Amino acid sequence: MMLLHHPGSGDVEAYKTMEEYVKDGKIRCLGLSNWYIEELTEFLPQISVMPALVQNEIHPYYQELDVVPFIQEKGIAVQCWYPLGGRGYTSELLNDETIVRIAEAHGVSSAQVILRWDLQRHIIVIPGSSNPDHIRENLDLFSFSLTDEEMEAIRILDRNEKHDWY
Q1: DSSP assignment, residue 59?
Q2: Long-range contacts of range 21-24, CB-CB < 8 Å, 24 or more positions apart?
Q3: What is the pLDDT of residue 156?
Q4: Are 110 and 117 in contact (CB under 8 A)?
Q5: What one-character DSSP code corresponds to residue 45?
Q6: Hey, what domains does the chain have and what are their CATH numbers?
Q7: Where are the alpha helices (DSSP H) in 24-131?
Q8: pTM (2 d.p.)
Q9: Quick one: which of 11, 29, 9, 5 has its CA closest to 19?
Q10: Is the Cα dihedral 109, 110, 114, 117 positive or negative?
Q11: Which value, in Å, is the radius of gyration of the alpha carbons in the chain?
Q12: pLDDT grade for 134, boundaries at 50, 70 and 90
């Protein structure tokens, strides 16, 4: 997959060049990173190969409640980066009392609750870790499900608080 990062001038031309690589079989699919409703509404009608994925910052404090369904309704997968809040913010998010309470109810970690929350929103998560215990924990997301009430409790945490400005 080839990603076109953050909208800017010349994007349509750059994307059309990448579309040729797809048509020639040199790459299988295209994706976008850090694209939102306004940019996508203008951009999508100008291209011929629909992006397979849009990768944006998404975590419980920055949920993109309007953007995620907009992208998904177009048949495009959503992938989050910084699912655990990102550099300098992970500890606060993992210790959020709502998330901790939900984790305790399921006998799992706060990180597992957040990653499960993403999966239940049909968002692809690829958490990074070099710690083997964390890697194993990040894979164990299918032994529990969050209730509608727990999903709502996390939704209420949204602060529209973006942690990385590219």
Answers
A1: B
A2: 22/49, 23/49
A3: 97
A4: no
A5: G
A6: 2-155 (3.20.20.100)
A7: 37-43, 67-73, 90-94, 97-106, 110-120
A8: 0.91
A9: 29
A10: positive
A11: 17
A12: confident
Q: What is the pLDDT of residue 2?
A: 77
List all residues 6 or more positions away from 161 whose beta carbon is below 8 Å from its beta carbon: 61, 62
Length of the chain as a residue count: 166
6-29: average pLDDT: 88
Rounded to whole angstroms, how far apart are CA atoms 163 and 86? 7
d(CA 59, CA 107): 21
**DSSP character at residue 83:** T
- Band the pLDDT of 110: cuts 50, 70, 90: very high
Q: Six-digit token pair at 24?
A: 């020639």
CA dihedral sign, ordered 128, 96, 103, 114: negative
